[in-house]
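Researcher: Go.
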Amino acid sequence: MMSIRRSLCAALPQAVIGVVLIGCGAAAPPTGAPASPSPTVAPTGPFALRAGTLAPGTYTTTAFQPTLTFTLDDSWRGLFPDDSDEVALEGTDGVFFAMTRVTEVVDPATWTPVAVPDDLVSWFTTHPSLTADAPRSSSIGGLTGQWVDVTVTDGSELEIFAYPSGNMRIAQGVKLRCHVLAMEGPDLTIVVGAPVKGFATALDMVQPVLDSLEIIPGS
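Model: Structure:
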């Protein structure tokens, strides 16, 4: 299982929206009686991300830039509301999905934060504690770049990206697919993670989210 970068509070209860109809009788209401209120219509979104179970629908970032919108089915929960660093979601069977603009990585020589290199994909492929497959071309949401699959080589939990609120890690037995998409300023990095045995299923689960992803320019 992947170890994520934040400790989580108990999931918030999901709000339930409904309409209760009462007083169904055969007689017509008295003349002049107020009309029955129209049924409440559930909002269609886009919804702001939050911690806890996320209902199916379209979601939008409110702090992360650029603004991202994407559609989720009923498989997902938010790990925390989006912030300026990252969007992070958890799916079924240990699936992890994040979108981030990495500004610092954890140096494998000193284990301290350093500025993200110009070529993050090469950083993955040359990292002494990671095993990386050959990079391939990637195109998501109108952005282009490369993706690379990585696993931990030495069996320990490994910190990769550094954030003020805690670092992103990859654990033994987990595979990550990291899409690094070119943007002005820090690149947009999309991370899909899952236990190695379920990785192909995880990719299938995440693909509809990636297909729905819209990156709002200039936001």
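Model: The mean pLDDT is 84.
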